[in-house]
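Dear Dr. L.,

I hope this message finds you well. Following up on our conversation about the binding site, I have prepared a predicted three-dimensional model of the protein together with NDP. For your records, I am including the exact sequence and ligand specification that went into the calculation, followed by the C-alpha cells. Please feel free to forward this to your student if that is useful.
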Amino acid sequence: MRPLTIVTGASSGIGAAIAVEFSRAGYPLLLVARRGDRLAQLGLDRALCKAVDVTDRPAFEAAVAEAEAQYGPPDLLVNNAGVMPLGTISDQPAEEWRRAFDVNCLALLEATQIVLPGMVKRQRGTVVNVSSLAGRNIYANHMAYSGTKFAVHAMTENMRREHAADNIRFQLLSPGIVETELLQGTRSDAIKDSYTASKRSIGGGLAAESVARAVRYAYELPQDVCIREIVMAPTRQAS
Ligand code: NDP
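The resulting structure of the complex is given below.
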C-alpha cells in the first residue's frame, strides 16, 4: 500500500493539483486548508479533508494524528499553503507582513516539526517546501512575500543538512508564475493589474497540474536520490 501524503493548502491551485496527482497514483491523503468545502469538492477517495488553519498548531497536529490512525505514518509532507499580499514598505499594513510570515514560514516550520520525529525514527521521509522564484530573485512589489520565500529557501537547506544523515529528503519547489488564485491575497488593484498584464505578456502561467507532475516525479525517485530544488517557470518567463 502507498504511504500517506500530507498536502497543506490543498483547496486550490498547486495544492489541489498535487492532491489530484497523488490520489490518481494511489496515495492516501491528508488535505488541509481553511476552506473545507473546497477540499471536499475535489471528491478524492481515501482523502481525509480537514478545515484547518495551518497557523493553528494543535489543530494541525490533531489532523495528522487522525490521518495516521487511518492510513499509517506520513512519508511525504508538502508544505504548500501560502499567501501573497503584494505591496511595498511604504504602503503595506504590518498585519499583511505578519500573516505572510505566519503562513509561509512559521506554519511550515511547525508542520515539519510535527512529522519529523516519526520520519527520523523510520529513517525515511520527504518534505517538500513550496518556495518560489521570488525566493531566489526580487521583483517589484514582492518585498515581504520575497522575504518569506528567501527564508523558506534558507531554512529548507538548513533542514536538509540537519537530517541528511537520517535519510530524509528536503526538497524546494520554486515555481515561476502558475495559474492559481494566489493574486487574490493582494489588495491593490493597480498591483494586481500590472501582475496580470505581465502574466498575459508571456502567454499565461504554468498549469498547476504541470507543477504537480514534477513534484510526483521527484518524490517517486528512490529515497537515496534527493532532488534538492525544482525550479520551473513558463518558457516565456524571462526573469
Ligand atoms: P492558491 O491561492 O490557489 O492556493 C493557496 C492555498 O493555501 C489555498 O489552498 C489556501 O487555502 C491555502 N492557505 C492559505 N492560507 C492558509 C492557512 N492559513 N491555513 C491553511 N491553508 C491556507 O495559490 P497557489 O496554489 O499559487 O499557492 C500555493 C503555493 O505556491 C504558495 O506557497 C505560493 O506562495 C506558491 N507559489 C505560487 C506561485 C504562483 O504563481 N501561483 C509561484 C510560486 C510559488 P484556504 O484559503 O482554503 O485556507
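In brief: Residues 8-15, 33-35, 38, 53-55, 80-84, 103, 130, 132, 175, 177-178, 180-182, 205 surround NDP (CB under 6 Å).

With kind regards,
A. P.
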